[in-house]
Amino acid sequence: MNNRENWGSKFGFILAATGSAIGLGNIWKFPYIAGENGGAAFVFVYLFCIALVGLPVLMAEVLMGRTTQRNPVGAFKILSGSPVWTAIGGLGVLAGFVVLSFYSVIAGWSLGYVFEAISGAFSDFTTASVAEEHFNSLVSDVTWNVGWHVIFFGFTMAFVYLGVKGGIERGSKIMMPVLFIILLMLVARGLTLEGAEKGIAFLLNPDWSKISGESVLIALGHAFFTLSLGMGAMMTYGSYLNKDDNILSATSLIVFLDTFIALLAGVAIFSSVFAMGQDPAGGPGLIFQTLPLVFSTMPGGFIFSILFFVLLSLAALTSAISLLEVVVAYFVDEKNWPRHKAVIVFGLVTLLLGIPSALSFNVMAEVKLFGKNFFDLADFFSSNILLPLGGFCIAVFVAWVWGFDKAVIHLKEGSAGLLDRNPWLADLWWVFLKFISPVLIFIVFLYSLGLI
Ligand code: TRP
Question: How many domains, the chain?
């Protein structure tokens, strides 16, 4: 076995894992679903979901990774010795491929939009329909779509190629602070616009009448997706942790930062959208049509539009890196491949798999299976099937197969006596992981399949 790399510091791990968690989900999806589903009331429900499912499963993933110092397949193999559980790890690696292939397409648009912003393309957006036409003409252009997907993918591969410490950790230490500073600038811009308070009201005024069974399920599903759970991404990052790092405090901080950034993104986006008199559209339209229109009339909009799409691209890049790392770690650990070879071979395979997704917006739009084009199919198969299934299995495995006694011994390592002084913390984690998380994840799974 070759010498396995480790993070340079716990802080490096926290930044990389926060980078994985903060992605398109935080900046585009969370603000929108929060605004639509009752504002602060939804945020409240979401925080519950994070506490009941998000944090316990995140801890389980990081713990499995750190204990075994392996990718998801190796981790399940070492802890269970059973081919069935090992195959569950394999599903995680598969999910990594599939999620990355379509995630990279939208991430490519973000990068492409940085250049649209720089070229001043947004300055003559006078109406929503002009912004919409511009967007449609870009995504129906095969070269633009595939081209930015390839360029974005090149960046992702470069960081993973440079290794855990020299590429992923070093990159995160630069990209995450930059992301945070840009976001603060956008928040400051948004809040100083006249009428910003209407946007804040949309995001934060609690409307309990909007909380339904469905909005609870949306909150649960999102809590899961936003923390990059269910496919071993956090397990893989956890596998580069040292035994003397405190998992409980590190994962709590990751969860806090992820939620905090999502809320800030919501404040930045909706204060601007409402102050500029626009409607908060749903779907990709919010980011790629409404916002460019908002920037066209906002004072300083040229600069802020560039900053916004740089922010979105960085958020997507640090997430994409974690997805590729799962696949690479598998081939490095299990097949003894050199990292460089794994990155080039499986980077290219994933890149190719993404091309039909990129073409789903133009020449392959009508190529459908089960009524979905390739992009929607890849999204559905991974987000609605592989990830919930993976998360369910991880919770069940740690709680019911690996067992409390063994898991807690490992959890205590590096906790500096915190768990000995407060045994109830471990007990609480256990109850959540054993009963609450699997049941809730299973319900979300049924819901996302349309069965309830
Ligand atoms: N968490 C990311 C987001 O919010 C998406 C993501 C990155 C992800 N890596 C993942 C989702 C692994 C599931 C699994 O956009």
Answer: 1
